[in-house]
């Protein structure tokens, strides 16, 4: 990743140029709807206002990384990457805490905020996938730079399934963290460092093995999701 936006959300969802692009884009686009249906089956129907609130929360957290990028722009590129990734935990979890404590303290509201938070990130990843694939089809300097960055991360030839797995992991993680913070604000003492540590560890592992990195993300994401759900039951 060039930062958390261009790294985990963009790079990990990038498929091989030869892959059937639109099938994976469609899978990503439909993922939030599948999650909403799954929760409806569990007795937690969609609350559109809270879903949109979660989406806005994610956009605010994304914008908060802007000052971090400005502060570290004089550092080496690798240092910039790690600094922005490390900032993902405080940026997202503190905004998430404010959202759930003021507007989503109940279980139904928290579930929908978590869905919206994860859903807008999924759609951002789908858009990034389309734009990145178009860039990779070119032969200019920008395309060569992106191609080299993805090759260094081991993502240029990675299976496109890993992008969907990464989004499933992130969805479970976001919903779980939202449920935890809605249950008790003290969970933020865990979610902030956990969020940053997971992102940093995934980006470190992904250079060695995409499969291992995404497996770790999926296990942690599902675990946080289950713990968040159980915290209300």
At a glance:
The protein has helices at 5-11, 21-41, 48-71, 77-86, 88-103, 107-136, 141-152, 161-183, 188-205, 210-230. With 233 residues, it is mainly α.
Walkthrough of the structure:
The protein has 233 residues and is an all-alpha fold. Helices cover 78% and strands 0% of the residues. It has ten helices and no strands. It has helices spanning 5-11, 21-41, 48-71, 77-86, 88-103, 107-136, 141-152, 161-183, 188-205, 210-230. Helix 2 (21-41) runs parallel beside helix 8 (161-183). The protein is globular, with a radius of gyration of 17 Å. The termini are far apart. Mean pLDDT is 86; it is low at 1-19.
Highlighted features:
single chain, 233 residues, mainly alpha, 10 helices, globular, disordered N terminus
Distance between termini? 38 Å
**Secondary structure: helix percent:** over 70%
- Report the uncertain regions: 1-19
Based on helices, strands and strand pairing, what is the structural class? mainly alpha
Order of helices and strands: HHHHHHHHHH
Overall radius of gyration: 17 Å
Number of strands: 0
The multimeric state of the shown protein is single chain
The fraction of residues assigned to DSSP E strands is under 5%
